[in-house]
Amino acid sequence: MTSRATLLLTARGLRAFGDGFTALLIPVYLTGIGADPLQIGIFTTATLVGSAALTLGIGFVAHRLNPRQLLRGAALLMAVTGFCFAAAQDFWPLVLVGLVGTLNPSAGDVSLFLPLEQSLLAQTDRAEQRTAVFARYSLVGAVVGALGALAAALPDVVHQVLGWRAADAIRAMFVLYGLIGLLNFAVYRRLSVDAPTHATSPTPLGPSRSIVIRLAALFSLDSFGGGFLVQSLLALWLFQQFGLSLATAAAFFFWSGLFSAASFLIAPALARRIGLINTMVFTHIPSSVCLLLVPFAPNLPTVMALLLARAALSQLDVPARTSYVMAVVTPPERAAAASFTAVPRSLAAAASPAIAGWLMTVSAFAWPLVIGGALKIVYDLLLLAQFGKIKPPEER
User: Fold this and answer.
1) Residue 97 pLDDT greater than 50, yes or no
2) How many Å apart are CA 10 and CA 143, to the nearest integer?
3) To the nearest whole number, what is the mean pLDDT of the chain?
4) Is 385 exposed, middle or buried (0-12, 13-18, 19+ CB in 10 A)?
5) Could you say which of 9, 37, 105, 255 would form a disulfide bridge with 360 (CB–CB 3.0 to 4.6 Å)?
6) What percent of the chain has pLDDT over 70?
7) Helix residue ranges, H only, 3-112
8) C-alpha to C-alpha distance for 155 and 161, rounded to whole angstroms
9) Contact by Cβ (8 Å): 131, 5
10) What is the C-alpha end-to-end distance of the chain, expressed in Å?
11) Minimal CA–CA distance to 103: which of 222, 188, 18, 225?
12) Prediction pTM value
């Protein structure tokens, strides 16, 4: 693995740690200042809309500007986001911070960092190693994100041992999130970007426009379904339905993250054996079935077992999906393709959390999980039908 890939994986890990604890602390902190599930859903929607807008902006300028400079700017925005969120104590100022900042309420990476890092990672290894590189990228994010979720229990520890107010302890964690942004900035300063050649200089979408548009539409359906169960809202549902403590939720999401991480170790070998599209579809459908069964589970242990089974399966498609997009477009289009597929996904995911929050206020039944799981199965079937015969170069 190249030094550039090592730096990108380091940056991914740092961000994942911050995302891991903030995804759990956001609903706890907002509930503490009096926000109801609908308001928490609105906040989640605002963060995802903001991420989509920033990613869209990156898509317009990525082929003109040095990606290292863009990543450094994004890292500084992450730092400002953490410090401002820690300073604000009213709901609507916090929504504004979520809208313009880099907070991530989901278990995956939906930030403006993602397309920039993906396009650079795609240049670091041979085509046959591409899926493995993206699997390592996802693995680092999952493992360190799991540790970040475990760190969400720190405010309880600080509250009990040092006597801090719970709200102050949580705000301190958002200060830590800001400091992680500064660490990312330091990592990106060490990142060298090779001078582009005529053959590899980034360009807007051209020959691959049609296939990228179709993929973006399908990924958007998947993300719309996923928006009903982003990690912040799933944690809120567990808090409300079963009265989980923050420490228990942190431990559960830690193990959930590790289960997801284990799946990334399997993804490259599975993709080589059955193909990228088949890996995406035939691991994703069983995970969605687990999700559909959760609302009908008789007790908390069964719920957790189903969610852990889902975690072990639901992320197998992530490196395969990224590798597939990078494979079916020309190298100069990769940055634009990464942004073009990321933006609709972020916008689609942003549309559903507010709906999920509203559903949680009007019914105790877990409608968001049922709707999200059903939409994801529809996505899988459509993906197989439309792209099952379109192979990346290494599978032909």
Assistant:
1) yes
2) 12
3) 88
4) exposed
5) 37
6) 91
7) 3-32, 37-61, 67-87, 91-100
8) 10
9) no
10) 25
11) 18
12) 0.86
